[in-house]
Amino acid sequence: ISIHCNSCDKPNTLNGTSVYYDHQHSLGLAKLVQNELIAALGTADKGVRNANFAVIRRTTGPGILVETAFINHESDRERLVHPNFRERAARAIARGLAQFVTGESAEGAGGA
């Protein structure tokens, strides 16, 4: 699990949380983590997306890249600077991972 802050070319135009996966066997993990993040953070749901990022492309097991919020969007950045936001994000990611490992399935996650 690779954890990041997103950014875009035009500041204050995009905000929210998204999770990326490359291989189909990572889709369930991505959905579980995204569901937990949105529930915990209250950020805009930018969804789960397939992407060819090197950090997740070269994994042999399930791998995801998490974009917690946009660092160049004022309201997202205000959230990111608070330790409580980062703690909630970390715990949400851990819950999603635990659900994946134990075989629990959040509605719409497609199983683990």
UniProtKB/TrEMBL annotation:
Keywords: Hydrolase. One of its GO terms (cellular component) is outer membrane-bounded periplasmic space. InterPro entries: MurNAc-LAA_cat, N-acetylmuramoyl_amidase_3. Pfam families: Amidase_3 (PF01520). GO terms for molecular function: N-acetylmuramoyl-L-alanine amidase activity. Residues 1-98 form the MurNAc-LAA domain. GO terms for biological process: peptidoglycan catabolic process. PANTHER family: N-ACETYLMURAMOYL-L-ALANINE AMIDASE, N-ACETYLMURAMOYL-L-ALANINE AMIDASE AMIC. This is MurNAc-LAA domain-containing protein. It comes from marine sediment metagenome.
